[in-house]
Batch of 4 targets.
Target 1
Amino acid sequence: MNFDDTPEEAKFRAEVRAWISANAPHDLDEDLKKSGLAGLRLPGRDIMAESKAWQKKKADAGWAVPHWPKEYGGRGATPIERVVWQQEEGLYNQLAQPFAIGQGMCGPTVMAYASEDLKRKYLPKLASGEEIWCQLFSEPAGGSDVAALRTRAEKADGSDEWVINGQKIWTSGAQYSDYGILLTRTDPNVPKHAGLTMFIVDMKAPGVEVRPIHQMNGGRGFNEVFFENVRIHDSHRLGAVNDGWNVALTTLMNERMSIGSRLATGFPEIFGFVADFQLPDGPAIDNAAVRAKLADWAVKSSGLRYTAFRAISSLSKGERPGPENSIGKLVAGVMTQDIAKYAMELEAEAGVLTSQEDAPAAALFQNMVLNSPGMRIAGGTDEILRNIIAERVLGLPGDVRVDKNVPFNQAPGR
Amino acid sequence: MNFDFSDEQKQLRDSARRFLEKQSSVAVVRRVLEGDEGYDRELWQGLAEMGFTGAAIPEEFGGAGLGYLELCVIAEELGRAVAPVPFSSTVYLAAEFLLAAGNDAQKKNYLPKIAAGEVIGTFAYAETAGEVTAERIKATVSGGKLSGTKIPVADGSIADFAVVAAQSGSGLGLYLVDLTGPGVTRTVVDTIDPSRKHARIVFDGAPVEQLGSGDAEAVIAAVYDRAAVLTAFEQVGGSDRALEMARDYALERIAFGRQIGSFQAIKHILADMYVSATLARSNCYWGAYALSTGSAELPEAAASCRVSATKAFQHCSTNNIQVHGGMGFTWQFDCHLYYKRSNLLALNLGSLSVWENRLIARMRARNSARDAA
Amino acid sequence: MNFDDTPEEAAFRQEARAWIAANAPKHLKEELELSGFGGLYLKSEDPMQAGKAWQKKKAEAGWACLHWPKEYGGRGATPIERVIWGQEEGVYAKLSGLFTIGHGMCGPTVMAWGSEEAKRERLPTLASGEEIWCQLFSEPAAGSDLAGLRTRAEKATDGSGDWIINGQKIWTSGAQHSQWGLLLTRTDPNVPKHKGLTMFFLDMRSPGVEVRPIRQMNDQRSFNEVFFENVRIPDNQRLGPVGGGWNVSLTTLMNERLSIGSGMPTGFPDLLDFAMATGDVDNPAVRAKLADWAVKASGLKFTAFRALSALSKGETPGPENSIGKLVAGAMMQDIARYAMDLQGEAGVLTNAADAEARGKFQAMALRSPATRIEGGSDEILRNIIAERVLNLPADVRVDKDVAFNAIPTSGRK
Ligand SMILES: Cc1cc2nc3c(=O)[nH]c(=O)nc-3n(C[C@H](O)[C@H](O)[C@H](O)COP(=O)(O)OP(=O)(O)OC[C@H]3O[C@@H](n4cnc5c(N)ncnc54)[C@H](O)[C@@H]3O)c2cc1C
Ligand SMILES: Cc1cc2nc3c(=O)[nH]c(=O)nc-3n(C[C@H](O)[C@H](O)[C@H](O)COP(=O)(O)OP(=O)(O)OC[C@H]3O[C@@H](n4cnc5c(N)ncnc54)[C@H](O)[C@@H]3O)c2cc1C
């Protein structure tokens, strides 16, 4: 065990640090500090342009997606180096938000299942941020139960093309994406997991229509996506026909591999906040009740960090990250929500204010309170994560399943 | 002993509910949430015509003289309907300050108009972030003119008058200010629940009239206790509605071939919501009784229902979203109306920690008295 | 709404108060006050003797089971009067722990299903504490899933009409002190599990009954295993129809809910007193915790009172009353742990002589896990609320409509 850098790691860190201090967009520092969990806020600037610029700069110097192989736009960094990079990139990592799904989930799936040609065609531009990807899994009838999805893919007669019809929902970033990975149903006559197939879809193809959804926090980050006779060449299929469920599991497993990427909990934010914030009898940090709350969150936050580090050590030894990593989002989601509420409680009457100018801490916590419910749902709800831990880590039996081994088109509840 | 509302009070609840289902439908709430009107005028007028704004105002001042139990019943329904009206500012605060500290002329001037829905009032208190204390109030009255800044003031942009807490040579005092008069600049500020507008009010030599001459802090504490009970009823109404929405969705939504309400993970979330909503309701009944009888237990009962109902509403509104999955996070579904309102009401009268602290201080005082006896 | 006494209630309270002042065993008051949940610290007297003596005295003056009809040992009091009595009896109620199951669950079941003769014979001695009753429901294979029980009752082949019992019960509280027991058995294993049950009451001194105390994690021995080997029960001790035992047991459980008025202990008043005595109540962190529990405790109290008002209007108390134990159980556990935390290193001490608050919170910490299990675990209570109050669908059931002897199980012999 060694919580410090080895000499090689220290050298790597120094290199990263030097490069970042020479190249990062320091003019954004102030705004980035105020963004955090509130979502990226760069008043007076085009967020996408700033994000793409930083990503491109990193890519040119070989720092975009450092752990990807060189030929696909990375630099072949080790898992530990990746963590070192993230620690050093710090604040600026927020600029990578538009690429997170593409690089964290779509890229690895393409890497595992696409032909060499396609990998060379798509991955470098995904790495450099020139092209953005989205993940088209969830549907109105299939969220937690994603295998219940209905979007059809049918082979066009006498051609190498598939014809897609149906609807996706909750697709984050679809409105600015160039490509997506698309999970479809190719055979409705077999049980639900056995009739799925995965594709790469061109989001600009004829027949793809993206309609932004208005979120409860006022944002429009996710979308409905409609497919009407959209054609996809068979070369863009990922994995075997009807083996889409396995391919999707790769995607989800890779989501877990991104654990190293800082899981936001809100703890550093509230710790910073209470240091300055004045209660009637002095700084909040000196109040015993505040301390009791902070201590609880402090150990959760360090527990999560070191759980992630332990997973990285297994990864470095070539072990595959398992379902135990589901605890990250489960703990962080609720914690963010609680932290935001508590900070607002300390702000008291002024806690209701939400504009950056009026609200304490530039409305950081108010935005967190409005964003956090989404965190507890996106990419596996709290309940599904608990089921995963119970069933796949602890070996408990699955829920009684009424749709098991039933052909999809005869399953109950349709 | 009887721990329930009377049949007449239940009838009042039913008619309030029917009225609000029509007049404060989700469409009405959303119109205020998304628009610039500070409140729904038609609904406000309707509430006055129903006698609700004057429910607890004595008949001699133009009220219906029904009483506080009735006002609690109405408050619960307003909370359930997330009604977009300045009811709490006008009825729980402004009217109560007038009743507690106003002279006869002041009562005669304002209360009948409140009962008739002709004026909107509010209380302007906080100036900075954090618990409001007398020391933190910098607004000052001198020579009958008020100067200073208050933020956030609930309904501050639409109110006709405000009760303002301000310093003067003799310490903290309460003053009545005509918000439509000179020396008053108000701007709407963004808040967590845009269906209830708040303002920043800058006073620059605004003429004031003194409201009461006693210990202002004591008056504020007493009125806040009363308002806490009424607000807690709004919170309980909101909790119940959020629970119902979650229950209905759990019955409707199918995943893995089953109603999601058949999964214990969901059932237990809902059971826990029921528990917190029920405990809050029971505490509220205690508060209602203490409020209506002017019992010496009111300070403790008020803090109990405030703490309990704040927690319950936040718990229920948060889990309502969780049970709805992605749908809960959309603007289109109504879950967020309750989530936002719960976060607003949790802070409007001073936050949870403040009330928790008060509650224990009051219980300690009671036990000390018991031990001394 | 009226949280205060009406004139009649005030008069009743006065009467109860006066009688208690004149008759209660005041010499035990201090010890009883220091007794917490999970421990009755009576040094000066044998708890069983003290309990029986107080119960007998109450019975003679008509204060035992006061809500029961006069002819069965009560005084026909209203639900509110019962609460008033409970408030006035205060710490002395701690002496009645032995009778809780008999008075709260067995008695009402006999009252609802027993013959007039059985009622007149059994209930007055139960009310007066002369005889103690226990409840023989749970079995090794049947706790939460009570209807999964296996103890057999078969008609004797000698034509006497008697029933012959074979099998085993477990977790039977107080069986070692009991003269009588309420016994749920299986009379027909060939029908679905809820349909083949029958209820009896039996004399615990019958031949073939063997009681073996179980040592609990808190080192007490209040519950037992009870074995039945060819135990005979006359048919006139059957409660309800053959095969109707499930329904009868629901009466028992519903009556458990009726005891709501008495209120579940939460540990909160004890903690508040403790924090005041130590001065911890001035610490904002302690206040935040106290406030959370304070509103739960008052919420529970007034929820019980509201149920009482419903009861007074003739409504039957419903499953919504399951929240009492659900909230109180976990709360007591948290409170005990927090009080020990406030005691610092001394929190580990358990001996009344050494420990803070005479080890009250330590005893509570060791007893409270059982509260969250006995008489319906937390999970079962949440299911009840979800299904019976909120009308959510029942769990997917693999044993529904299946004959009992064909149901999947762990460890059927
Ligand atoms: C902000 C945000 C961004 C998203 N981005 C994307 C994206 O880019 N691409 C994409 O494909 N999807 C995306 N999603 C969709 C997300 O993955 C789904 O919302 C999620 O899987 C839940 O599905 P659902 O919304 O259909 O809820 P449901 O599955 O209907 O769930 C409703 C409730 O039932 C519970 N439930 C369901 N099944 C069970 C069970 N077996 N046991 C216990 N409880 C259960 C859930 O926990 C939840 O509380 C996003 C969602 C959000 C909120
Ligand atoms: C101190 C004490 C005194 C008692 N006194 C008596 C008595 O006098 N007479 C008597 O008859 N019994 C008595 N009991 C027994 C008590 O009623 C049972 O222990 C209780 O019903 C639980 O049954 P079990 O112990 O078999 O646990 P199980 O039923 O095996 O439960 C084990 C765990 O599984 C959970 N579980 C079971 N089914 C479900 C489900 N459907 N959904 C979710 N979770 C589930 C439970 O919640 C629990 O966490 C007593 C118990 C205790 C602890």
Target 2
Amino acid sequence: MAKTSTKERATPATHEEKLAELKAHMAELQKQENAQSQLISILHKAQSLYGYLPNHVMDEIAQTMGIPTAHIWGVATFYHYFKLTPPGRYEIALCLGTACYVKGAAQILQAVKDELKIDVGGVTEDGVFSLAPARCLGACGLAPVAMIGEKIHGELTPKKVVQILKDYRKQAEKDK
Amino acid sequence: MDNTKKLTITINDKEYKVDPGQTIMQAADKCGYHIPRLCYHPKLSIEGACRVCIVEVEGMRNFIASCCYPVADGMKIRTNTRELRQARRDIVELLVDNHPEDCHTCERDGNCELQRLVYSMGIRHRHFTGERKHYEKDLSGASVIRDPDKCILCGRCVRMCSEIQGVHCLTQAHRGFNTVVMPAYNMPFAESVCSGCGQCINVCPTASFVEKNYTQELFEKLNDKSLIKVAQFAPSVRAAIGEAFGLAPGRNMEGQLIAAMRRLGFDYVFDTQFAADLTIMEEGSEFLERLQGNGPLPLITSCSSAWMKYVEQFYPDMLDHISTAKSPMSMASAMIKTYWAEKMKIDPKKILSVATMCCTAKKYEATRPELDVHGMRATDLVVTTREMAWMIKSAGIDFVNIKEEKPDSPLGLSSGAGAIFGVTGGVMEAAVRTAYELYTGETLIDIELADIRGFKGVKEAKVVIDGKELRLAVAHGLGNAHKVMEMVRKDRNRFHFVEVMGCPGGCIGGGGQPYATANSIPLDEEALRLRAQALYDLDRGKTIRRSHDNPDIQRLYREYLGRPLSEKSHELLHTHYKAKLPRGIVSPELKIV
Ligand code: SF4
Ligand code: SF4
Ligand code: SF4
Ligand code: FES
Ligand code: FES
């Protein structure tokens, strides 16, 4: 069974396995009436499998469900929830929950944006980082908090977060 | 409720009796009130997005969009109060706030629905200085180019492309301020499922969609002394180009067009109608071949370029039904660069072959490498009716009053059958006239096929040739083409011969025809009918009404090609189609929301 959490995209299945699971999901829906209206559900499934919506997967959905690709694209771009680019190697989930907000999450966000030159929802050009907002990560005691990859970083300051990002980048370079 | 009972309403305090079951806008139209509108088009589903069409209805708290609200008995409607005028004006002002101030240098200056709307609202200056959207133009397509900055998001193109054309190339992607009309994945047009039909251009109220323009290049080349400039023009161009000069639809401007093209600098002006006759000779013979068991039936026509690209992407499994005969434009070009060049002892490399077409997809067709002759591009440039009209104006030629001229020989003389090629059903009618006589050796007396004339989406007819009943089908607009293809797929024996035209009404409704004028709408059915009538009249007025009776066609076969489907014909007049990606999705049920 492939993992469905978008945060741990580590290594679930091969492309073939993911596709098989997506197709099974579509086949199930096709038994229902109005299968085409299930597009959102299918896109959710695809994103949970792939971490985002690759074009070739949307092509698959189009062919299988008989839904024009442009229509799928319209829906996928309409909802902010759907990601259209692969997430960065490290996904930054920056907490904007109440506790973190009170402790200056907005400034942290600004620092991250400036450092990485991306917006919320974006991916850095080198593919190392992507940035997403998060609601309470359940670590309010450490506010302000960000989760980077699988790790929680707390008591952030703008300066501290920039340093942390630099460390991750070094790590990424080494891994290459 | 008795549906035939009339409703009593008042509009601006005057009482009217109107039919039930229509919208306020439709009722008002019939009472002589043209409520301003933008996203509404009678042929498309109602989107109700722009709110330009608001009216006041007594007892309702807010203004309502008249294009999507049904009229009801006793309704008291106001269309022109002070408050309404203000509100409408605000709505339109908001649209233009996010629109470039480009009119002077814009392709649609003077022909723009938005411009007219802004003017009629009394908006005389612009206040806005905020953020305006800016996107790259998509110049990749061979036929259609897209400038999102000019888009006001009325959605007409998206509905046209999906509901009428069944191509579903376009969508409104993203949301709010960031909404952009684009193909899937924001892919360049050249890589999309776009058929090049240009119907999005026809319905777009602004210059957000326009054809790829070749007028400057053509002006340059017309000045090039080293080239021999040869023109051809499609049947439907003559039936519509007058509209671009303020004439009523349906005036045949053939003679004026020829005269004007000579004044523009063309050395020879031929007529695509001649090549339409040639197409009929080849396609008609191909049909008879297949009827005798050589090749699959039904035979499906292939002269519409948008249709060809559509078929390659949406029905790649049915390509063996498609006629191998090239389109009249490509046949004419092939003959210009071989037969005619040899006859004139001209180096074909020195020939500039230019086609004026009612069609934007022909621009793409001209670039197809499989249509090259002897390693040369057959058609060097394609301009639309609109572009040609602009060139004539720009060159200061008095088009309307010019003395009519005749086309050049030997690729200029045409039969009536060649003329009706431009109307849905015309190719079929022309083919039957010739196939009948080639097959039976007898003369067909009643040559007008009433069943396949008119604008019904899919038309069916039967003719008897030599005791054999042949079933014919005709479709126009790619959405209808799709319907006919599904019929064929279900039952390959249902029809013997199928004609498909990619555009509504056939070439007369092509994506390159003149824009709708101030008091008309894009693809107005009455205008289409009048254009069609011009071609039918042209046919009736000719003594030669069958392609095989055209003496210049007979001469061409005698001197050069031998006979239809000869080796030489195959080399120069036939082609093959290949499956293309991306694969199109055939989805008739889905209405884009
Ligand atoms: S699209 Fe119309 S309103 Fe816009 S710049 Fe062109 S002419 Fe002006
Ligand atoms: S040219 Fe035709 S197929 Fe292409 S986007 Fe426009 S309407 Fe759709
Ligand atoms: S491109 Fe033209 S037709 Fe399409 S939504 Fe924009 S303004 Fe309307
Ligand atoms: S609000 Fe940020 S971790 Fe709870
Ligand atoms: S025309 Fe009625 S809402 Fe646009």
Target 3
Amino acid sequence: MSLLWTFLGIAFAGWAVARLFLGYGAGDPALRQLASREQAFVRAAADAVFPSGGGALALSGSEAGAVAHVDRYVDSLSPRSRVLIRLLFFLLEHATLVFPAPGWDGIRRFTKLSPAQRVAVLDAWQRSPLAVRRTVFQSLRAIVTMAYFANATVLRGMGLAPLEMESPVIDADLLYPPIGRPKSAIRFTPADRERTIVRAPLDPHGPLDPAYRENA
Amino acid sequence: MNDPRAWPGSVRVFAEYDRDFHVSADVVVVGSGPCGAVAAYELAAAGKSVVLCEEGPPFTPADYEIDGAISMSRTMREGGLRFTSGTVLPTMQAIALGGGSLVNSAMCNRTPEFRFQEWAESSELSRTSRADLEPHYDAIAEFLGIATTPDEVQGPRNLLFRDGCKALGYSAESCPRNVVACRGSGECFTGCRARAKQSMDISYVPAAIRLGAQVLTSVRVEQILSDGRRVTGVSGRVVAPFTGTPGPSFRVEAKAVVLAAGVVATPLLLQRSGNLANSSGQVGEHLQFHPGTSVLGIFPDPVDPQFGATQGYQSLHFLRDGFKLETLWAPPGVLAVRMPGLGHPLKQALLDMRFASVFDGIASCRRSEGRVRERGKSLQPAMSWRFHPDDAAILGRAIWHMAEIFFAAGARKILPGIAGLPDEMHSLAEADVLRTRTLRPSEIVVASTHVFGTTRMHSDPRRGVVDEDLKAHDLDNLYVVDTGVFPRSPAVNPMFTGMALARRSALALAGRV
Ligand SMILES: Cc1cc2nc3c(=O)[nH]c(=O)nc-3n(C[C@H](O)[C@H](O)[C@H](O)COP(=O)(O)OP(=O)(O)OC[C@H]3O[C@@H](n4cnc5c(N)ncnc54)[C@H](O)[C@@H]3O)c2cc1C
Ligand code: SF4
């Protein structure tokens, strides 16, 4: 009898592990932080929040490069903050195993749901009467929204791309090198402070910052 | 003297530390935010030898990131993901030369007299009135060129607030800011590329170096050294920018120590240094915030909100009612987090952002408090805080008045962002629910960048950590000069009052070392 229970226990554990961690396909190996399952989750969540198509903002979340941006963001965080973000992704990816998505096949992890089910799941978190669920949703949406807005085409489409602006050279530029470099890397001289540059108010319709231009 | 490289003081950066080191000075200042930078400058100006220790690196325009998320992860502690337990309140503290001034909106408000009177009553203060601090405010204003924000750089986003207030008979003031020749880029949050914002890294810190101060960047003070009633210096480690990876050790011996590590870090340093300066038991207690919330208004014509001073207008009309209203801008990705919905409706709503203005309200809470403690031995904080329903109700009133101002300025709809209420309201009549309903803490999305109270000033050594000169009651030569010394909310943005108090304290200390 106890052998049977052991067998059943192992089988259940195997099923649970497969359900939780397997079947994600290969991720982008160029990314530094996100594992393939996390990449899949971010892609699915970004496309649920920002689906493809729709006029001036045609790009979907993943087309806008959300996965790579989230990877870069996570990479720039402290180890503790990374853990928090990973927990958030894990929680939302697997919450549907406990609180199913609508439909007979709703007990599947988030990335296995249909696009419509994913939207319904996130909407339920968003509209939950429980403040903590709303906070979890807002945290996820904040991450994918910031990633979506990192895309120059998106910002241009919204008319909110940063404008070109030159930095004058000031005393501080003769004291501090760029971060991580020694002071010998300071490339300015006192004469650079004399260079005349525009200091007038920006023109809201003036040229965009080079990194946000059409052919950047 | 025209070449900063020939100035008597110096700055050391991460790449230059290759071994343990030891320096000495008259005074060591910990933290280069607005309060520490002013203190370091005044002490250097008084002829004292000064070492200024800062955990963050200096940022140059080459290091700024216009992208909001990436910028936050580089300039803010815990990558901008810091929050309290109890009521979840996201809060940001910078880690950079210049502290919060690198990323803040530069609003420089003087605390109103009525609030100083309340401080005087609650903390038994006799020398901390508005009149007492006026000379310090004036000196700082002159040094930094603090002036109201000119109309040419306000942009429609800020001017609509002014117009709405005017139409309703509420006061509206152009924000006084430590900014010279603003270009209206609205990107104070990610660092001022125009070098117009006079953040500490380009104003007070270079001025202190010019007078001989030694600035150590990328050094984390971990211990305040003491012997009986006297502190003898500080010790700690060099830390790599962004990763915090520890490097060589250092020690600074000094005749006096000035702590300006900020409301969250200063109590942690005291706690881990043998619970220093804490016979009152008040270190780390009374953690207070200005919880803030924003409302978006969508106008019929394009507002082009990316142009205009980040926070160009404010209304001080409701200060006695417990809140302050302001305009606000931040990287679009950060603001868009506030847009409701998902999928195509969200995308459609985002296209409205060109027509949007954003206002925010901050509450000067009376009853919401918390505490900060060290998490393990990490120098990371565990913060708890509870948003009291009375204070949430006050913030609720701020939301109603923002709605009023939007519609008076001609908005076609507002997005109040309140759980359980419609995402969009199209008229003042629809928004009336904001007036009639008392909002609960869990219904309002709040965040805060204004913090105080954890090393409060009180003339009674049993009830406060520092006296009116900001000297620790328990020690002869330890000063705490950051905004943690505020007994409670200053009613307005805290930076300028923190600097004024720090200046007064530094002048007092200069006469004693
Ligand atoms: C986004 C944002 C916008 C804001 N806008 C405004 C505004 O417009 N007007 C206003 O009045 N206020 C504003 N504030 C708040 C204001 O910036 C703070 O009140 C102010 O910076 C507090 O100054 P401080 O010197 O007390 O502390 P901080 O500015 O926090 O400086 C503390 C410094 O100490 C350093 N430090 C901490 N621990 C250590 C250690 N162990 N060793 C060495 N160094 C250490 C930190 O890295 C930091 O640089 C804003 C804040 C933020 C984040
Ligand atoms: S609005 Fe732009 S130009 Fe003006 S101070 Fe802020 S960052 Fe600088």
Target 4
Amino acid sequence: MTSERPVEIAPTSYLPVTAVASITHRITGVALFAGTAYLLFLLDLALDSEAGFARAAALIETGLGKFALWITLAALAYHFIAGVRHLLLDFHVGDSLAGARRGAWTTLGLSFLAAAAAGAWLW
Amino acid sequence: MVTNVTSFGRSGLSDFVLQRVSAVVLGAFGLCVGGWFAVNPEGGHAAFAAWFSSTPMVVFATLAVGALVAHAWIGMWTVGTDYLRPHYFGRASTVVRLAYQGATAALLFLYLIWALAVIWGGLNGSTPPATGEMPALPHASAVGEAPPAEGS
Ligand code: HEM
Ligand code: HEM
């Protein structure tokens, strides 16, 4: 007897590049929610006064402060690039299977370059 | 139509559109601020503050804060709805999800107030002009004077 029930395909052992791109967009979105506090803190200092601006500049010179800013900027870069891709997909640009794979790789590649550029700028 | 009391626009379709419109606003704002630092590598407080407190930037930043609140609420709501459900949390899932949503809303409210205070500046005179050239106020001589004695 043929069952009409959905078949469990157990996808646990492989992760298509499109799934990696998707889950990373989610992770970076939640990371940005937290990172917003740090960016607001820096903006508050930088706008407050000369001394505040200097404090913000000094903070992002410390190892932890610089790393936190880099992580936040890298997350923003990824979330932004993947977000633009998402908007294109909404208009059915690049939503074929091959196009989606290409778009996912492009997103990951561009974000890698953007994160490296942010790192080069900071260090 | 499926509705949910904790969604932002009370319908999934309006949340979907808001999520996208707010994404475009946030993206444009991020490029704008990032672009300023790229174009002005020397930066400095005075130049940055002068630019950021110009009327167009104050309006744009205010718009961006509104977009952030809508975007982050809808986004965090989506994530919470996906994971904080009975499959993982059993009968506690509603309480867990509401606590998560409450914490998200509280933090977003903090961001909103904080960001507006930063953008609009100087609440309670906490931020004097950056140049230090605070003009003397006409009533400055009155500051610190003892209040008139009450005729008892
Ligand atoms: C063969 C394997 C997989 C297939 C066919 C698949 C398929 C899908 C589909 C059709 C969606 C809905 C897309 C949409 O919201 O429009 C989705 C969303 C999602 N998948 Fe997968 N998936 C797979 C593996 C995985 C794995 C292994 C993970 C995580 C470890 C994952 C994480 C996610 C997440 C987080 C979403 C939500 C994305 C969003 O809301 O934007 N997927 N997946
Ligand atoms: C600090 C700012 C931002 C925060 C805190 C944030 C946060 C989030 C979160 C938590 C999600 C939900 C992710 C999910 O359901 O998987 C999301 C989704 C989304 N974000 Fe952002 N985001 C920000 C900026 C941006 C920017 C600049 C863009 C620009 C293109 C963008 C585009 C998107 C899009 C298109 C979605 C919908 C994804 C979907 O429907 O699956 N976001 N965001």
